[in-house]
Amino acid sequence: MGRDVCEASSAARAVFRTADEALGFELSKLCFEGPEETLRQTELQQPAILTTSVALLRALEESGPVEPAYVAGHSLGEYSALVAAGAVGFADAVRTVHVRGRYMQEAVAEGRGAMAAVLGCPAEVVAQACETTKNESGEVVSPANFNSPQQTVIAGEARAVEAACVRARELGAKRTVTLPVSAPFHCALMAPAAEKLRVELDRLAWADPRPPVVTNVEAEPNHEATRIPALLEQQVTAPVRFTEMMEKLGAIGVTRFLEVGPGRVLSGLLARIQRRSKRANLALSDDLGAAREFISGT
Prior knowledge:
Elements: H1 3-8, H2 10-23, H3 27-33, H4 36-39, H5 42-61, E1 71-72, H6 77-84, H7 90-107, E2 113-119, H8 123-137, E3 141-148, E4 151-157, H9 158-170, E5 175-178, H10 191-202, E6 213-214, E7 221-222, H11 228-237, H12 242-251, E8 256-260, H13 265-273, E9 278-282, H14 288-295
Parallel strand pairs: 1-6, 8-9
Antiparallel strand pairs: 2-4, 2-5, 3-4, 6-7
């Protein structure tokens, strides 16, 4: 992951060097060579994705200015957005997401929590299934990611997640899919991680985001540095309101979206939210030329 852009761009290479120095180990080698099983560990996966995303952005900037009206990210991606907006330095961000991943992994014992995607029914139905299950069982389960009008991810204690999936299918969901994750992210079980993370966030020097960052917690543009630590703390336990975030951007006139980072998942979700939007991806060095043309409006 990221090897191709690192070979193609001196700016991208500098990002990977900074990550290695900031973390005190060779994240670059892990990204380029694996093993994949190690890379999938939450405390390593998070800085790896952030580093690759920022490396791709810096490679794009080598060919000319990149001046978005707004930036946004999904969960971990909000840190990439904050780096892109100049709200935090990359070295501070990569160190922070490294400990964020560790805190999230440590918050819940292995096997206790679970996440599942509920497909083919409105978010309101999924929320109802979670609330009913929570009230009946006394266990934690709630929406974690509002990914699109017909896709909601839920998280919580494993038995409650399974029960909520059954209830969602009874209420009309087409299917449910258990996700291969190491912890139940974006739910109340992550409270210990959020508390520890806030200590780290308060140590950082934050600047006003320019451009504003549409946040996961509020689904509204934020341009104030002082609000960032609290929003990122809340993000750990609160659902990612991706559908509302994209609807907000559409409502304020955004029609062109460039997804920067490994993979193309968000563009696929966006196609279900803003069908008329224009979308492009920068996931590999081969995408750099097309991405430059896209942001130039050509």
